[in-house]
Write a structure and sequence with these properties.
Layout lengths: L18 E5 H17 L5 E9 L2 E9 L9 H14 L5 E9 L7 H13 L4 E6 H5 L5 E6 L1 H9 L4 H7 L7 E4 L1 E4 L2 H13 L14 H55 L8 H6 L9 H43 L1
Parallel strand pairs: 1-3, 1-8, 4-5
Antiparallel strand pairs: 2-3, 2-4, 5-6, 6-7
Helix pairs in contact: 8-10
Length: 336
């Protein structure tokens, strides 16, 4: 999704989006597509969001998935064809962003940053909607909307990812995105139908809150965090190697400058013109600074996994203490 080009450009000033309103139909289509991709081939599901801007809210009224790489039709042609057909049947066809699936809330990546930058600089009101398949599969509906912060847009516009540039912009993984509140809107008939369906759910389906089978989930999160820590360690090794090379180059430069100063002193004693220092600067050119964008994103991923693991362990410990108290009370009652 690193090179998706939106088909509509907006030249007006950026309108303030206070919250996102998503229709229930669009939310169900996003959920269906994300779960189908996660269960079939474990790929990230992505698609386009359609809707319109009304005052201070962004309304998402429809969506459609992006074609896969193995399909014949070009992606841009596919999107244009879908929007033309929606316009013919009087359905909102304005591009207002895109959506993507995530696993345990960790969606931060270079491709997502680049894609949202292209969207937000072309369509000012656009958002990216992240749907978490893992959390939703365990009974917690997780769907969030994000926009890039002005600092992140400025960072990508300048294209400088050096430590000095990031320090000047005062940007880190904490302020790359800003979360926009999202609400799901349903019609009155839909709410009535949901209430009727809720009464049809068997009682045993809602009694799994004390499930202690959490080892697999915790193991997966710890493995992902270990992989990210290894990746961050490799980035740290690269940066330390760069610093050592810079120090060595500076020592070589100082040695050559001292030698040149001695030569110029000897030439001055002979009334000869001094030699310039330009050839030394050309010989020892500055080393390219390794970009710090990927390490910053990896650090953000580690922080996200750490927060989820902390919350998950706190909930698991609470369940354990509750079940222990129940078991103790049961044993005391049986002995009496």
């Amino acid at each position: 999704m690193s090179s998706r080009n939106p088909m509509r450009r907006i030249t007006e000033l950026e309108s303030r989006i206070d919250y996102v309103q998503c229709d229930g139909l669009a939310a169900m289509k996003i959920i269906k597509h994300c779960h189908e991709e996660s269960t079939s081939n474990m790929e990230v599901a992505q698609g386009a969001l359609l809707g319109l801007v009304v005052q201070n809210r962004l309304e998402i009224t429809n969506c459609f998935p992006f074609p896969k790489n193995d399909e014949i039709m070009e992606e841009e042609e596919y999107q244009l064809a879908v929007m033309r057909r929606l316009r013919r049947v009087n359905v909102d066809h304005f591009h207002v962003g895109w959506y993507q699936s995530a696993d345990v809330g960790n969606f931060l990546s270079v491709s997502l940053l680049e894609s949202q930058y292209h969207y937000q600089t072309s369509i000012e009101e656009s958002v990216v909607v992240i749907y978490d398949t893992a959390k939703s599969g365990r009974g917690f509906l997780t769907i969030k909307a994000y926009r890039l912060t002005p600092q992140a847009i400025q960072m990508y516009k300048e294209g400088e990812f050096t430590p000095e540039a990031l320090r000047t912009l005062k940007i880190g993984y904490e302020n790359l995105f800003i979360e926009i509140p999202i609400i799901i809107r349903n019609s009155n008939l839909t709410n009535i139908m949901i209430s009727e369906l809720e009464e049809m759910i068997p009682e045993e389906q809602g009694t799994k809150y004390l499930d202690l089978g959490t080892a697999s989930v915790l193991e997966g999160q710890l493995r992902c965090m270990m992989d990210r820590v290894d990746e961050l360690n490799q980035e740290a090794i690269k940066f330390n190697r760069y610093q050592h090379l810079v120090i060595r180059q500076q020592q070589d430069k100082n040695r050559l400058l001292q030698k040149r100063a001695q030569e110029n002193a000897a030439r001055a004693a002979k009334d000869e013109p001094p030699l310039p220092d330009d050839d030394i600067n050309k010989l020892l050119r500055p080393l390219p600074v390794p970009p710090r964008l990927n390490p910053m994103i990896v650090a953000g991923q580690i922080s996200t996994y750490s927060q989820h693991i902390s919350q998950f362990c706190a909930q698991s410990l609470a369940k354990l203490y509750i079940t222990q108290s129940l078991q103790t009370a049961k044993e005391a009652k049986s002995t009496n």
